[in-house]
Amino acid sequence: MRAAVLTKFRAPLELASIADPDCPEDGVVLKVLACGVCRSDWHSWTGSDPDVSLPHVPGHEYCGVVEEVGARVTRWRRGDRVIAPFILACGQCPSCAAGNQTTCPTQVIPGFTHPGAFAERIAVPRADHNLTALPEAMDPALAAALGCRVTTAWHGLTGRAALQPGEWLAVFGSGGVGLSALLLAKAIGARVVMVDVVEDKLAHASAHGADATVNASTCDAHEAIREITGGGAHVAVEALGIAETTVSALKCLRKLGRMVQIGMPAGKHTQMTLPMDAVYSGQLALYGTRGMPAWRYPSLLSLIEAGQVDLTPLIARRVALSDASTELAAFDGPTPPGVAVITDFAQ
């Protein structure tokens, strides 16, 4: 099969013909319909993710059609269109039994611990515990974008911070996660301030429902948010994983505010100095979140199917597999609005 292989960090991916994946006994092999190109893939590309060893096939935001079914799989058949969370849980441990599959101690993560979906096919183990059927009318490109950014934002807003209608949400970073958080928060009925340093991204956010925007390159973002919201945001989402925006996200909150760390801290940002005086005096709550349990997919898909949220503004570029290297390198600087999704695996 054709795949884009990472053979050297910060180097173009090698387009190669590699062996088709073996079908796990408890899993399936999918023909990949679409795969998003995510900032987390960039962390792999730069060598910042300790789970990645070379050579490696990236790609963790995928959907596909079942081509092979393992002997122990009971829920899926050849021809089913499915999506999977990027964290594949075992479904049997105490964490999974409690509904916290994203903390499964034996989790499998295609694109990081296992070969990913920058390829024509991908093996997905633990299929009965993790796969969800795709609505027939859903565009594969949109479904792929759900796999990390939308699901993580949804779980962060509803499963962690419990965002309520009428509350103010401040989103730091208007990339894929940030834009997802905006669209989902508006569906919930919250008011949203988007923070970035790229005017095109802020304009894009305004065009898709942001109540206010802040260019952090021209002001102290947390002070601007406090003024806009009349005392501070109820909830803040940090979607970049860097120290400066994490500090600002905490400082922008009103008392009893909740902050969700969605951006993945890597490199020098794994260690941060945070304003714990603000946490203490404001009685703030700080949540980390990563992915979304598979059991929460149906509620999100139902929201989309019912027309309560339009996520199509997420998709900015439909690209070929050969474009993956360019898209990854673009994360080194400010990226344009929207996300890129690989939909052509022949080029």
What report would you give on this structure?
The chain has 347 residues and is an alpha/beta fold. It folds into 2 domains: 2-149 and 292-344, Alpha-Beta Complex (Quinone Oxidoreductase, Chain A, domain 1), CATH 3.90.180; 153-288, Rossmann fold (3-Layer(aba) Sandwich), CATH 3.40.50.720. Helix content is 29%, strand content 23%. It contains 11 helices and 15 strands. The strands form 3 sheets. Strands 3, 4, 5, 6, 7, 14 and 15 form a 7-stranded mixed β-sheet that branches. A 6-stranded parallel β-sheet has the order 10-9-8-11-12-13, sandwiched between helices. The longest helix is centred in the middle third of the chain and has 21 residues, at 140-160. The chain is globular, with a radius of gyration of 20 Å. InterPro entries: ADH-like_C (IPR013149), ADH-like_N (IPR013154), ADH_Zn_CS (IPR002328), ER (IPR020843), GroES-like_sf (IPR011032), NAD(P)-bd_dom_sf (IPR036291), Zn_alcohol_dh (IPR050129). It comes from Albidovulum litorale. This is Zinc-dependent alcohol dehydrogenase family protein. Its cofactor is Zn(2+).
Quick recap of the structure?
Helices cover 29% and strands 23% of the residues. By secondary structure, it is of the alpha/beta class. Strand 12, helix 9 (276-282) and strand 13 (285-288) form a beta-alpha-beta unit.
Overall mean confidence score, pLDDT: 95
Query: Helix/strand/pairing class, anyone?
Result: alpha/beta
Radius of gyration over C-alpha positions, nearest whole angstrom: 20 Å
Helix percentage range: 25-40%
Number of helices: 11
Q: How much strand?
A: 15-25%
> What is the count of distinct domains?
2
- Any idea what the CATH superfamily of the largest domain is called? Medium-chain alcohol dehydrogenases, catalytic domain
Protein name: Zinc-dependent alcohol dehydrogenase family protein
Organism: Albidovulum litorale
Domain Enoyl reductase (ER): 4-342
Keywords: Metal-binding, Oxidoreductase, Zinc
